[in-house]
Amino acid sequence: MNNITLGKYIPLDSPIHRLDPRAKIVAMFALMICIFIPTGFYGYAVIGALLVICCIAAKLKVSYVLRSFKPMLVMMLFLSVVNAFFIKTGEPIFTIKSFTLYSGAITQTLYIVIRLMLMIVITTLLTATTKPLDMTLGIEDLLSPLQKLHFPTHDVAMMISLALRFIPQLLEEAERIIKAQASRGVDMENGSLKEKIRAILSLIVPLFVSCFQKADDLADAMEARGYVVGAKRVRYKQLKFRFGDVMTIVLVNVLLAGFITAAIWMGKNNAL
Amino acid sequence: MSIRFEKVDHLYSPNTPFAFQALTDVSLELSEGKITAVIGATGSGKTTLVQHLNGLLLPSSGSVIVGEQTIKAGEKLKNTKQLRKEVGLVFQFAEYQLFEETVLKDVAFGPQNFGVDELTATETAKAALKTVGISEEDYEKSPLELSGGQKRRVAIAGILAMQPKVLVLDEPTAGLDPQGAKSMMDLFRRLNREQKITVIIVTHNMEHVLEYCDEVVILEKGRLIFHDSAREFFEHPQFMERARIDAPNIIRFREMCRQKGLELSPDILTVQQLAREIAKRRKKR
Ligand SMILES: Nc1ncnc2c1ncn2[C@@H]1O[C@H](COP(=O)(O)OP(=O)(O)O)[C@@H](O)[C@H]1O
Ligand SMILES: [Mg+2]
Questions:
Q1: Is the dihedral of CA B126, B168, A174, B146 positive or negative?
Q2: pTM, whole model, 2 decimals?
Q3: Whose CA is nearest to atom 21 of ligand 1?
């Protein structure tokens, strides 16, 4: 349970941590778009270098970032194997019996794997340096133009922040119940299908019961403090753009423009 | 079954920014056939300590020896099931672990996990439910229909049905009314005396320690600072002060008498005994 690093906030003090969440969310989207603009390996090198600098500035440990790749490893392996068999473009590199490996398969796989890795690093950077609550404030502010269309941004933000707030608690609760059932001899890994189903039930049922109880208590507590769905609320924490935030947004937009220009230029040259 | 801790450290989430050392250099031998209280402030590592007893947590360094089994840092547990069966661990707020449709089925769940057939498991479950004082008409009810105190009794029965040699309870009386808590403690004493089960209880209630426990283990910030008989513990009020615990009324009364020059025997543990002693002394005069 504690090995899940993707999406966990790391409480440190760094320039990246101090950035306004809105600036970080905008930057994340801009970088994601950059990744999908076809500029070849040069573009990836630029983004990669930028991300390395950001990770260092955010004081994130290399091991931590590497660990966030773990859940994707299986998928990457699978992709590599599939690509090796099905992509038949480029030069043949070697042949074993009836199987030939083409250079196209290698470059295509590298493209996808690097793209995935960059995306993971970008999301890890955002979630590791932004408190969940700040994140929801940021999302709420960025969505606020939708209020004109009667989109309930407040309620959505409240729902997201409640959900985020309960994730660690749920994980903790799940771990507690797993341990309690393990004390009664439940073995989540081994056993027949019937035993496994019962083992999973012994986790899910208590988890659901306690979730509903918690939701009930929370609703009561919120109402007792005067929360009304849809009513206008003021906010204690105000987000403020500072120089660094403005610079971040300008920078990623320049980068985005650069990527688009590069892509168009490359496209023309290739066409010629 | 003998239980020994040898220089045990426990580190949560090692090699992450969240790493936390919850136990430091704990060496300890728990007496067989006794009732031992584990006390200490919240966060002092009591839960962490007792979860080593059935291998839910493994030491980061050092070793835990339970009966025949040695749980060494860095080694995989060999006979997990056997250990879990012999050391029954009741979690704090154990009522949250109930999941079956009926009380009886839930209690029979434990023994079945250890390979006992359904019929025998049901028989042991019935016996366990009887021991904890759940009446027969509740056997076929859903656990969710019971009161909080009853649910906890069912959860304890679920562990007793495994017929453990050692019973470990993490704050078993937290959140119960005083009457319910007392009868719960009576139950543990009965199990200890009649079935010779070694009982280890994590608790904050000094009245219970005074009345029911033979030995006391005190943790402070993950370190063992005291392990001796309960009698010795109550003779040394500085440990209670250190653990920020209020002494039980009887002990305070005894201290007050001593300051006024009246010595009362440390064997006096209950109000009844105290009343008898005072009556006896008055007669003598
Ligand atoms: N899963 C965990 N991960 C990290 N730290 C933990 C975990 N469980 C407990 N701790 C920490 O270890 C310390 C001891 O916890 P615990 O053994 O539960 O104390 P007690 O039962 O005496 O209140 C606490 O400071 C707690 O925050
Ligand atoms: Mg505890």
A1: positive
A2: 0.77
A3: B47
